[in-house]
Amino acid sequence: MTATAAHAERYIAAWNQTDPAARRRAVAEVFSPDARYTDPLVDAEGRAAIEATIAAVQQQFPGFVFRLAGPADAHHDQLRFTWHLGPEGDEPPITGFDVAVVDADGRIRTVLGFLDRVPTS
Q1: Residue 61: exposed, middle, or buried by beta-carbon count in 10 A (0-12, 13-18, 19+)?
Q2: What is the number of domains present in the chain?
Q3: What are phi and psi of 81, to 5 degrees?
Q4: CATH number assigned to the domain comprising residue 58
Q5: Which residue of 10, 98, 108, 121 has the lowest C-beta tally within 10 Å?
Q6: CB under 8 Å to 107, separation ≥6 — which residues?
Q7: Single pTM value for the model
Q8: pLDDT tier at 121 (50, 70, 90 boundaries)?
Q9: CA separation for the pair 24, 117 (Å, rounded)
Q10: Beta-strand (E) ranges in 1-121?
């Protein structure tokens, strides 16, 4: 499966889904059953763990939204993109960079996340 910018858009949409049932459906559509998400703060394996990670981030940063910080770059089965997390319409205090790998079914199976800018306090 060739990765596309649409994979990054669906991924960001899943991270922004606040309704638990809708978030569960979004995670099932975006991630493979054995997906793994790893960043400096968490290593989540499987859809349930990824969904719990998304819920925890939303609880830690209520009212914040993820948005792409430019176009996604994709080739073969991998893509990379930069994202912002912050209040809608305001300067985002958090910026990160993710690399994702897509499986043969078009779902994300691996995400390697990096935090480029985080608040110090």
Answers
A1: middle
A2: 1
A3: -160, 155
A4: 3.10.450.50
A5: 121
A6: 29, 30, 31, 32, 35
A7: 0.95
A8: low
A9: 28
A10: 31-39, 42-45, 64-68, 73-75, 78-87, 94-102, 108-117
